User: Which sequence fits this backbone?
């Protein structure tokens, strides 16, 4: 009885080098060179929330432009561009530099894998050549045979010696077949049909849209040692969910909402893994040994890169780990020159000045801005509804500045997550601690910039409806000259109570939300206006409480 062995069905089992010479009908396939220059412009998912990326579900996209070299003899050829992004949209592909242009385009979605090669053998009635090593002599012999069946438990192979399970001899085995017309590739491929009447050597460009990309902006705001100053830094995080990398690429990102309609595309087929086991070649009553299973993956693909996981965003101060370029769970951080901004119609384009590699299944951070000593005002804000009671609630803290050159900024700021740090302690014990997180909306140049945080319990506000007629209110509330009272319904007196338990005065703003047709008619503090609604701006003394009273009028 021959001892039982395990099938080790590996990608190398099928002897890619032994695919043989192409028949004459397929001799005019031409492979373009690998890219000699790559440009990647990433467009953000307009509907994504803040936070980390799920590399399996990136709904942004990229415009990729590759420069390649080709040499084509006279005749009609299928020119193959291997190594394009998995999520390529073939209809968007434009190939320039071919003298006679393009006749047709094809996205070759089947990748080289053990199961795909076995399926391809069916085109020649399963006829293959098995290369196996003799157990006794160690010599390699080649035997013609035929694949009889492929099932979940493996491959049944027939040779002149009989029918047996493949890879059960216990010695290295591979097989090959003659045809190269399989349409298989170790990498995602776009092919185009072209025709020329003379030999050409050309530098061509291929540009295409591809899914499975995204980017985000992450900011760090650190309150400086000097009062009223803040250091603001920002990182651009690029995410590539494709199985292909783009080394040494020129990278741009586009900020702004871009309307885009696109249908579904056929996914790249990675091929099914082959699961195999061997059994003793004796009586059918013999008890099989314990099954040993080995998975086979497509050539050129690292199985670690295809595990499903949600990539959590680390803090922007993350340090690149040794070997991180090969680990999809890491975020690569580069901090050379800052990104350069320019207009792209109504959108904003940010260029990463240094070439960088966008690796497959990976997130990468590059520095966008690094502004020091940005003047900032600390404002505590309450937002109340007119004519309604409310209990004491902490006021929000707003860090306010202006996005202009005078305030050390002055570039369009894309929306993103902001982490705010405060200094705690003094001297040797001083340290920078996280004070809160917030978000920043898209900001234009010269626009007011506000970072809103949850305030502490030391500064609070409440509103009480006193139900007192205006004629008996003392001291009397001052009328707002521009507001008409006669013929309109006048509310009772609203009293806003503001308390400050801190040992220093603070600036506060109280916004009042009004209904349509409603106005503040009288108050003891004259309100201003912001975004069409009244706002009281006051200073709350240290360790003190103050009140604001007002009345509203409503059209009948």
Assistant:
């Amino acid at each position: 009885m021959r001892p039982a062995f395990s099938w080790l069905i590996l990608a190398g089992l099928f002897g890619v080098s032994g695919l043989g010479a192409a028949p004459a009908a397929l001799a005019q396939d031409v492979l373009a060179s690998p890219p000699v220059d790559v440009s990647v412009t990433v467009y953000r998912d307009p509907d994504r929330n803040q936070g980390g990326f799920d590399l399996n579900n990136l709904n942004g996209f990229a415009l990729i432009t590759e420069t390649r070299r080709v040499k084509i003899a006279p005749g009609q050829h299928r020119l193959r561009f291997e190594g394009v992004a998995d999520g390529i949209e073939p209809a968007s592909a434009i190939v320039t530099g071919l003298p006679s242009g393009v006749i047709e385009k094809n996205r070759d979605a089947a990748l080289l894998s053990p199961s795909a090669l076995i399926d391809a053998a069916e085109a020649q009635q399963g006829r293959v050549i098995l290369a196996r090593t003799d157990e006794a002599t160690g010599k390699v012999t080649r035997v013609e045979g035929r694949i009889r069946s492929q099932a979940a438990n493996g491959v049944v192979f027939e040779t002149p010696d009989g029918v047996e399970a493949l890879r059960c001899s216990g010695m290295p085995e591979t097989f090959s077949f003659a045809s190269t017309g399989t349409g298989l590739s170790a990498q995602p491929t776009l092919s185009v049909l072209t025709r020329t009447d003379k030999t050409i050597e050309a530098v061509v460009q291929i540009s295409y849209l591809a899914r499975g990309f995204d980017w985000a902006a992450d900011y760090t705001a650190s309150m400086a040692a000097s009062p009223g100053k803040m250091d603001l830094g920002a990182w651009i995080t690029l995410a590539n969910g494709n199985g292909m990398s783009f080394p040494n690429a020129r990278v741009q990102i586009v900020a702004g909402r871009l309307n885009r309609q696109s249908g579904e595309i056929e996914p790249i087929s990675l091929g099914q893994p082959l699961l195999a086991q061997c059994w003793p070649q004796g009586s059918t009553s013999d008890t099989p040994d314990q099954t040993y299973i080995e998975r086979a993956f497509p050539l050129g693909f690292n199985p670690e890169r295809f595990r499903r996981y949600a990539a959590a965003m680390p803090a922007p101060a993350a340090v690149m780990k040794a070997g991180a370029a090969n680990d999809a769970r890491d975020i690569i951080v580069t901090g050379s020159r800052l990104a350069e901004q320019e207009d792209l119609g109504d959108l904003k384009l940010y260029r990463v000045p240094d070439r960088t590699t966008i690796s497959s299944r990976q997130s990468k951070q590059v520095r966008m801005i690094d502004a020091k000593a940005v003047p900032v005002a600390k404002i505590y804000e309450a937002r109340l509804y007119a004519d309604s009671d409310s209990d004491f609630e902490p006021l929000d803290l707003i860090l306010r500045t202006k996005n202009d050159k005078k305030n050390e900024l002055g570039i369009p700021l894309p929306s993103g997550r902001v982490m705010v740090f405060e200094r705690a302690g003094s001297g040797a014990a001083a340290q920078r601690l996280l004070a809160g997180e917030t978000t920043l909306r898209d900001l234009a140049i010269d626009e007011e910039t506000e970072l809103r945080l949850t305030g502490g319990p030391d500064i609070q506000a409440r509103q009480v409806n006193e139900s007192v007629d205006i004629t008996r209110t003392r001291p009397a509330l001052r009328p707002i000259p521009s507001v008409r009272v006669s013929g309109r319904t006048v509310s009772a007196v609203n009293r806003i109570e503001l308390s400050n338990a801190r040992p220093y005065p603070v600036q506060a703003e109280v916004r009042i939300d009004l209904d349509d047709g409603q106005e503040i008619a009288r108050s003891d503090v004259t309100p201003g206006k912001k975004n069409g609604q009244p706002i009281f701006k006051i200073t709350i003394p240290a360790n003190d409480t103050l009140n604001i009273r007002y009345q509203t009028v409503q059209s009948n």
Observations:
- The radius of gyration is 35 Å.
- Residues 376-556 form one domain.
